[in-house]
Each structure stands twice: as C-alpha cells, then as structure tokens.
Amino acid sequence: MSALTRALSDLLGLRLEGAIGLDERMLHARTTAAIGTVVALAFSLFNLFSEGQFALGLVELGVLLFLLLPALWASGQAQHVRLSENLLLGATVLIFAALVVLGGIAGSGILWVFIVPFVAFFLAGQRRGWWFSGGFFATAAVYFLWLQPLLPLAYPYSATYAIQFLLALLFYTVTAAAFSQLRARFEQQLQQRVEEKSANTQHLLQQLQHQATHDPLTGLSNEVLLSQLLQLAMQHAQKKGSGLAVCHIHLQRFYELCNALGKAGSEKLVRHVAEHLSQTARTHGLLARTGRDEFVMLYRLPADTPAPQAMAHFLSELQLSIEQDGYALYIEFTVGLAQYPEHGQDSHTLLHKAEQAMLQARRYGGQWTTYDVQQDQVFVRHHLLFGKLREALKKQRLQVYYQPQIDLRNGRVVGAEALTRWHDPVDGAIAPSLFIPVAEESGLIRLLTRWLIGECMRECAGWQRLGLDLELSINLSASNLLDPDLLGVLMAELASAGLFPQSITLEITESCFMNAPERAMEILRRIHNSGFKLSIDDFGTGYSSLSYLKSLPMHELKIDKSFVFQLLQSRGDQAIVASTIELAHNLGLAVVAEGIEDEDTAQWLRERGCDIGQGFHLARPMPAAEFLDFVSDRNTAHRAAETIPCNLFIE
Ligand code: C2E
Ligand code: MG
Ligand code: MG
C-alpha cells in the first residue's frame, strides 16, 4: 500500500473496522428499525391521505411492510444482524430515493435526505458507510445531472437547487464520516484499554491462583491444590480399576533442625528435602507440601501390588540424607498411609486418615504404618479421657488408695503403696492402667504426681503422729524424672508435712532409663542424696539391663506380679523369683513381691527369704481411713500373736 493510499485511508478512517461488537450492532439495528418503523408508519399514513402524496405514502408503506418490519424482526437474532442492517440500508435508499424523485410537499422531502449518510455510517461502520454514502451521493448526482429531466413524474428541482443540495449532501456525508470516525477511534481506544486491563487482571489472577494453590518456598502444590488433584487421581484410579495410596510424610525433629540452621539455612534445607522427595515422586506420583515439616505424596498403586508392599519399596528408595554447606544432614521421617478406596472415598477423609496413620506410626515408634481404624478409636478414647482427667484433677475427683505392704517374716504392716483411684460420676471407676498412660502421654502426669505427693505425704505424717511406724511408696513415671521441679516438689511437700525422707520410697520402673538414661540417673542420684529411698517396680518386665542396678543407689526391688500370680504352678516363675530374691539380697537390696493372691504363695516367698509382700490376699488397696483401721487391727493382732510363728493372715 503506497503512502498516499495509506494517508487517504487513514483520513477517511477506512482501516477502522470491527470495533463494534455483535451486541452493539444488534442494538443499533434494533433502534434504527424501531425508529424507522414508527416514522415510516406516521409518514406513510400522513402522505397516503395528503393530496398529491399518495405515491410517496405507498412507497413508504411498502418499505415499512417489506423492509422495516422484517429488519426489526431480524435485529433480534444474532445470526441475522447483517440481514437486518442490509434491510435497513435498503429501506433508507428506497424511502429517500422516493423523496428525492417525488419531492414530497412542495419539494420539502429532499430536506430529509441528509440523514442518509448518518444512518449509513451508524449502521454499516466506517468503510461500508463510505461505500454506501458515496454510492448514494453518486447516484443523486447522476440523477440530478441526467435522469431527472427524463422522468415524467420527477419533481422539477432547479439546477441551482440541485447543485446546492448535492454540495450540502457532500458536506453532511463528510460530517457524518468525521463523527463516525471519532466514535470508531474512541471505541477502538476503549477496546484497547479494556484488553490491556483485562490482560493485566488475568495475569494478576493467575499469580493469585498460583499463590493460593502452591507453597511459596518449594513451588509444590499446597493443601488446597492437593485435595483437587487427589479428587482427580481418585476418579482416574476408579476408571482404571487401580489403587491409590496417600502418604503423609512427617519430618522428625525438623523444627529443632531448622532452628539450629537459621532462616536461610532452613529454607535451603526445605528446598533440598522437597527436591529429594520430588525425585521419588516423579516416578510414582505427585508431591505436595502441606505444612512446615509435612509433605503428602499421592502414590499410584499398580493394580496387582498391595499397598504395604509398594510402600516398603518406596521407602527403601527414599533416603533423606542431604549434604548442605559441607555438613551431612540425615532427616528421619515417619510415613502414614491411607489407601483409596479402602480407607475413604473423598479427598478430605483420605488425607485425614493418612495423617492419623502417621500419628499412629509415631506413637509406636515405627517408620511407617497403614491406617488402622482400631488404633484410631484408641486415639479418640485417649483424647476424651485426657479431657476428663484434666477436669477430674481440677475438680479434685481423684483419690489416693493405700495398699498395705507387709513384712513376710512377722506379718507386721510396714507401710503402704499409694495408688491413685479415679471414680468418674458418669463412667464409674476408671482403672489406672487406662488413665496413667494418658496422663503420661499428655504430660498431665506431672500435675497428678505433684497432687499425689502432697496428698499421701500429709496422710503418712498423720500416721506417724499417731505413733505408727509406717513408710510410704509412691509411683513415679518416666516423665516425672525429666521434670526439673520434681526434687523441689518432693522437698517442699516433705517439709510441709514434717516427714523424714527415709519414710518415702519412690518406685520407678525400668522404662525410666529408656529415654535419656543419663539424665534419669542424675536425678535419681540427687533424690537419693536427699535421703529418699528408691525401688525398682515391676522388676523383670522391663529392659533387664542390670547395669543400672549396680550403678544406682537402689534400696529395694519389687518383683512384678506377673511372676507371682501363678508362682506355684510355674517352675519358670519360681526360678525367676528365687534368683531375683537372691540377686537382690546379694546386692544388699530389700525384696518386695506384689500380686500375692493366696497363702501358699506367701508361704513360698517367705521360705525363699522374700522380705515384704503385697497382694490381694494380704490386703487390697483401700482409702486412708480404712487403711488406718487395718493397720491398728493387724498390728494389734500381731502383738498378741508375737510368740506364735507367723503364717496366718487375717483375710
Ligand atoms: P504398680 O505400681 O505395680 O502397682 C501395683 C498394682 O498391682 C496396683 O494396681 C495394685 O492394685 C495391683 N495389685 C496389687 N496386688 C495385687 C494382687 O494380688 N492381684 C492383682 N490382680 N493385682 C494386685 P493398680 O492400682 O491398678 O495400678 C496399676 C499400675 O498403675 C501401678 O502398678 C502403677 O504402675 C500405676 N499407678 C497407679 N497409681 C499410680 C500413680 O499414682 N502414679 C503413677 N505414676 N502410677 C500409678
Ligand atoms: Mg508400684
Ligand atoms: Mg508393680
């Protein structure tokens, strides 16, 4: 295209095209058709009944019926908008041609003709508008110059009038084109701006969507996207008849590691871990980051591979040993696995169960486990019990029972073991075997032990004030030994009760040495140095590392009741109990046997030199007041029978 043509087409706005949308075109056509219909109807009626204007009225009526009304109908349908425009343009040409030729009342009809270029540009746009109005102008010129004198019915315009008319028509055509061009340019700019803005908005929206569905640090999917992807993966698995595993991966002690590495170091580590996991995920499924130290992997299970087998294979591939800044970091992790469709049919349930499975694995110290509904119920029960126990402690619903400990050689009550009892107003008596583990896991055991120490030391001081020479055994849990305030509490309660530490034996189990044995030993040494006695409870059921027996300042050893219950029926138990008694004595320790349920067992133990007995045959655990009565009855009976060999116990 030459520069001249380009300049000309720019001047005429010929390249301004397509700015009007379909809806707008329909609106233009409908408006024009509606106005045209009303005006044509009014004028046709007027002209039909005016003198000498019948032909014009007839043309107008014909145009109304055959062009304008169909155009009005077509303007309502998107696919017929072009037809509507053409009908309207046709109607314009016909009506205004008739006005020019027939002249209307006293030749005034021609004055209406100037509207033609406006209608043309309005309806047909810039380029077609030019063609149309140009064509109309040319036809008008041809008409006035050549045709008018030839037509007998034509209105007789003078030549001057015709030229003035043509000049005016040209002027109106240019004006209409200029208006139309301005409008088209404005619309084009508007369109451009709208497009720019919506592209911008689209970009921002995409960014927002990405942020809302991805983890900013690793770029992995987050929980929101994960549940959508899981939904799709389930649909896919259902179609293919294959399985799907949801693996909840928890990085152990990651918080501590991150704290040690600082912000930049920990972010780098997270990216490393994500990369590592992604490599494994690439071949098997999809990875998402759902928390600071948590990832979830969707793992496609081949139709014939059971999940545990696939998991074992997957875990064997997954080693989180990472080298960072010259250090080798090994990150331990726990994995919980839930399977589709066995464990859930929707993403929320599956993700929840995978997390539960991970908690189950953590609780039992395994590296991974599959979701187990029974474990889940246990967990829920534990949690409910925890709430109740807290309440019970707060509302002082717990009680201490005392189980007498009896010197097997002479039958005297030498002391008692303090045992916590809990009677819930709704559930009734709840056994220590149920609530003590809950207290230990939840940390409530510290509060419980503090309460117990205070309670039973006060009781013991009361006995001693009555002149009874009784000692007290208190059970400690492993986590009590990690409580830095334990010794302080013991000393404070001892002082407030006015007791000597020698009256108190603290029972610990072998499990106390499992975690942090050095720390536990140190605390026990301090407790011993403060004058308390120490006893190993449930001896023989724990980890049976005898090394602590020689290195710890123990006073007593309690044979676990499981060896005592069937003592007379089991030669194995007899061998264990007899050698434990001997071992304890050789180490200079007193021996207590618990779980004595009959006189024959008591006799057997007595003959083997066991020092102290505890069991339902001798006495059950009882409230403080009952214990006091029991002691006075028993020790009075004992004094009366001091001369008789002691083998009879009051039941
Ligand atoms: P444990 O310290 O070995 O206490 C002895 C348990 O054996 C008590 O059970 C007692 O009732 C039971 N027992 C004693 N003689 C017999 C018998 O002849 N036959 C039978 N079948 N059982 C006998 P209990 O009170 O149910 O306590 C169970 C365990 O709960 C205790 O074992 C102890 O480890 C723990 N526990 C109880 N109260 C407390 C507490 O206040 N603090 C802590 N840390 N643990 C406690
Ligand atoms: Mg005990
Ligand atoms: Mg015991």
- Tally of discrete structural domains: 3
CATH class of the largest domain: Alpha Beta
- Most strands sheet: 8 strands, mixed, barrel
- Give me the CATH architecture of the largest domain, please: Alpha-Beta Barrel
Helix content: 55-70%
Under CATH, the topology of the largest domain can be stated as TIM Barrel
What ligands are attached or bound here? ligand C2E, magnesium ion
* Lateral arrangement of strands in the main beta sheet: 8-9-11-12-13-14-15-16
**What gyration radius follows from the Cα positions, in whole Å?**
50 Å
Give the strand tally: 17
Structural class: alpha/beta
Key terms:
8-stranded mixed barrel, binds magnesium ion, alpha/beta, rod-shaped, 651 residues
Protein model, in words:
This protein is α/β, with parallel strands linked by helices. It folds into 3 domains: 193 residues, no CATH class; 149 residues, Alpha-Beta Plaits (2-Layer Sandwich), CATH 3.30.70; 265 residues, TIM Barrel (Alpha-Beta Barrel). It is 58% helix and 15% strand. The strands form 3 sheets. An 8-stranded mixed beta barrel has the order 8-9-11-12-13-14-15-16, surrounded by 5 helices. A 5-stranded mixed sheet has the order 2-3-1-6-7, sandwiched between helices. It has a two-stranded antiparallel sheet with strand order 4-5. α2 packs parallel to α4, α5 runs antiparallel to α6 and α13 packs parallel to α14. The C terminus is likely disordered. Ligand C2E binds next to β9, α12 and β13.
